Amino acid sequence: MALIALVPPTRPHRSRLAGWPATRGAGHPTPGARRATDGTRHAEATAARETHGTWHATAGAPCSGPTARHRWYGRLLTLAGLALLPWMGYLAGTLPPAEAALWVALDSLEALCLLTAGVRLTTGRPGHRATAGVAAALLAADACVDVATSGPGAELLAALAMAAGAELPLAALCAVLATRRASCAGRG
Asked: SS3 of 110, please?
């Protein structure tokens, strides 16, 4: 069984974490640094986490932050969330008011979830899984309702193209991100 080391992403002030191992760079422990194994150090870690931000729990090796793949996924989700903003304006201006309110509300929730998950992935903060899961469900529902409510002809083709080209692939990516844990650099 591997010990779990709590490693801060940045070096905390020594007065707040007396007795914690010194770190170098972005939270990598110095050689020979001790790991937290007793309740006192766990209490200090909890207090430091509340003061200094996110700590990475790892089994044996410290996380160095988000992997390049997770940063790329985060940027993609953030870009998709930002792309929904002008789309919502277009929908509000072209649809009847009652319909526009529903579609804009749905797209607003999608954008909020995509932006939250994207920023958390890009910065390496935990908590992207829940918002990615909600985004996946909303995007899949949006694609289904778009196709089901579109009229025949060009409107149906546009709904199918948007579902197949944007909404369902993005929903699949969000579903994968929601079900997989963020891994440490070099492991995934």
From this structure: helix
